[in-house]
Amino acid sequence: MLETTESLLPILAQKKNLTVICVGYDPDSLNELDQLLSTLEVVPVKTVMVSNRKISPATYIGKGKMEEVKNLAVELAAQAVIFDVELSPNQLRNIEKELNLPILDRPGVIIEIFSQHARTKESKTQVALARLQYLLPRLAHFWNHFERQRGGGATSRGMGEKQIEVDRRLVKNRISLLKDRLKEIEKERKVQRAGRRDVLKVAIVGYTNAGKSTLLNAMTQSAVRAEDKLFATLDASVRSLDPNSHPPVVAIDTVGFISNLPHSLVASFRSTLEELRQADLLVHVVDASHPRAQEQIQVTDEVLKELEVDSKPRITVLNKADRMKTPAERNQAKLLAPGSISISALKPEDVKRLRDTILAHFHKGLEVWEIMVPYTQSKLESQLHAHGSVEIVRHLEKGTFYKVRIEKGWAEKLGLEKYRL
């Protein structure tokens, strides 16, 4: 049985000593693939550009490019070739046969990173599931990588094919087991979310490495793991935005998005991304200094649409303003998202301005109630202070007059209608 902890490409364990050639058709996307590989501590030695008008259905690249890659592989003593696209199982098999080298595609690289960065029981289960769903249709291709290939005559090849079928059934059983496990984890998450049902929630979303975790730490004075790496954070982190705010507001950090994010990962991380469905406000963080910021905004919009949360109220934050040195750069950034807020998560005054904007958004959405609370209802008075924003308090003969801003749901729950003036 294939172990869920095994690398899709065991040779990646050599990291910096690995000689890798990357193949793709988009220079910017290839640069991002370099970043992905650097997260795995792998530095590619050569990049081969392909015209996207000449893509071969059988091998993705044509005979000429295949020959170029083959010659480079021999010249550089390459140990693997990585394609900056999603390859079909047939393409993977055909390319590996042509080059006689281990092959991996972009989704495989992303899954490899997720596997290394998973820390909690939930994220490890999610990644293991995504990995097996990616692997299942490609089992024959990865046969060599897991030392299952039996070579030799026709008899041993037949045995190998039978073993693949056995592994395929085992993988399917394992997928079913992991799905059941995720259902149990989701039940636990529902209990946790139920505990936050009466709290206003702001979810921080955006492209990977846009600075979401850094921003969460700055806004909440916490210490969520934040690194200058792609997919440093895989688990949703929940922190109080301001302990003094009434009603209480929590901020939730979520896994970052990326172009061509494997569908198996989006599906597996739905329980984590369910936090977005429960959110009252989305804060979309953009790395405004990135040359592909506009495309990254579009990718995030597409994922939010796929998750059916694109209609939620949203504040767009142009982060890393400290990296934009010239007026021209700053003006160009403003064009990315009209009405957005430009900040640096490293500047306390910028972070405070964003936090105040978020709290003002929620404050504006609260209903204004003018009520008279009898002196016998002291418990109600404490609940008004806990769940609402009290603006005026006057102690009168019949009771205490309150002018309070409070969420509609809490007003109904506390039965404020019978005290309304």
Q: What would you say this structure looks like, in words?
A:
This protein is an alpha/beta fold. The chain has 3 domains: 1-195, GTPase HflX, N-terminal domain (Rossmann fold), CATH 3.40.50; 196-363, Rossmann fold (3-Layer(aba) Sandwich); 366-419, Alpha-Beta Plaits (2-Layer Sandwich), CATH 3.30.70. The protein is built from 14 helices and 13 strands. The protein has helices spanning 27-39, 63-76, 89-99, 106-117, 121-135, 154-195, 212-220, 263-268, 270-278, 293-306, 327-334, 348-364, 378-387, 408-413, and strands at residues 20-24, 46-49, 80-83, 103-105, 200-206, 237-240, 249-253, 281-287, 314-319, 341-342, 367-373, 388-395, 400-406. The protein has a 6-stranded mixed β-sheet with strand order 6-7-5-8-9-10, sandwiched between helices. The protein has a 4-stranded parallel β-sheet with strand order 2-1-3-4, with helices on both faces. A hairpin with an 8-residue loop joins strand 6 (237-240) and strand 7. Helix 1 runs parallel beside helix 4. The relative contact order is 0.09.
List keywords for this structure.
421 residues; Rossmann fold; six-stranded mixed sheet; 3 domains; 44% helix; alpha/beta; single chain; four-stranded parallel sheet; Alpha-Beta Plaits
Write the layout of secondary structure elements.
Elements: E1 20-24, H1 27-39, E2 46-49, H2 63-76, E3 80-83, H3 89-99, E4 103-105, H4 106-117, H5 121-135, H6 154-195, E5 200-206, H7 212-220, E6 237-240, E7 249-253, H8 263-268, H9 270-278, E8 281-287, H10 293-306, E9 314-319, H11 327-334, E10 341-342, H12 348-364, E11 367-373, H13 378-387, E12 388-395, E13 400-406, H14 408-413
Parallel strand pairs: 1-2, 1-3, 3-4, 5-7, 5-8, 8-9, 9-10
Antiparallel strand pairs: 6-7, 11-13, 12-13
